[in-house]
């Protein structure tokens, strides 16, 4: 079966994304990705010039999918920014179920790629920045006195939920995230 270059690129990225997430980026070689995708390493390198390019595409895809999922949850919650914030955490609770969660893809990427000059590192930081900025937008819509402070607090809960789910499971400390978010939101009263 012949594929277009775009189809081959998507196939390689699909396989690489699965392997990178479940087995680790550095632990997954290009030869393994090519074999599982049913392409030669030369074909893989035509789609992605280097493994670093493939990793950057994996991070970009993960970021795009997450942002779309969280934006959809916010939109479904309606115009109330408080409901939007809670919807983001409800979506996160779905994402950290053990059958689909090994850990935060961006945090795992940052652990494996600490060099700030690498596109994968920059993409992972960008994803984390987006979450904080999204919380900032919603906090601003709430009309609280210090939306940046609320955004930071929500980001800390977000990251804590991700990391404790990875270490202790979704039924451990992450099960308290929504209650903690509700308490934080109750503490930050609108200034208007």
CATH topology of the largest domain: Tetracycline Repressor, domain 2
CATH architecture of the largest domain: Orthogonal Bundle
Structural class: mainly alpha
Number of domain modules = 2
Helical coverage, percent range: over 70%
Number of helices: 9
What's the CATH H-level homologous superfamily of the largest domain?
Tetracycline Repressor, domain 2
Sequence-ordered SSE layout with sheet pairings:
Elements: H1 5-23, H2 30-37, H3 41-47, H4 51-76, H5 81-95, H6 105-112, H7 119-142, H8 147-168, H9 177-187
Helix pairs in contact: 1-2, 1-4, 4-5, 4-7, 5-7, 5-9, 6-7, 7-8, 8-9
Keywords: DNA-binding, Transcription, Transcription regulation
Protein name: TetR/AcrR family transcriptional regulator
Pfam families: TetR_N (PF00440)
Description:
It is elongated and about 60 Å long. It contains 9 helices and no strands. With 192 residues, it is an all-alpha fold. Helix 8 runs antiparallel to helix 9. 73% of the residues lie in helices and 0% in strands. The protein folds into 2 domains: 49 residues, Orthogonal Bundle (Arc Repressor Mutant, subunit A), CATH 1.10.10.60; 137 residues, Tetracycline Repressor, domain 2.
Provide keyphrases for this structure.
192 residues, mainly alpha, Arc Repressor Mutant, subunit A, Tetracycline Repressor, domain 2, 2 domains, 9 helices, 0% strand
